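so my prof wants the structure for this chain in the tokens format not the other one, which i didnt know existed until like an hour ago. anyway here's the sequence
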Amino acid sequence: MYTAFVLLKLKSGKEQEVYRALMKFSEIQGLRQVFGDYDILARVETGDFKTLRDIVINKIRSVDGIIATTTLIAIEES
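here's what i got, hopefully its the right format
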């Protein structure tokens, strides 16, 4: 299982619209609006890296209002 945290920078005024769009993706297990350099933090869980890549590139980044993403892939705890 791959867990990633995707940090999203948004266009001003698009916060609610982007949040609602992201809530429709079943692969997103958690979503929070945050303050600071980023506007939304999304937790994504998938079975493999290729699927994770597809979700970030083809689904999340395609949402209108997203300026940039930073993806942090979590490591398994030992």
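also thought this was worth mentioning. The longest strand covers residues 2-10.
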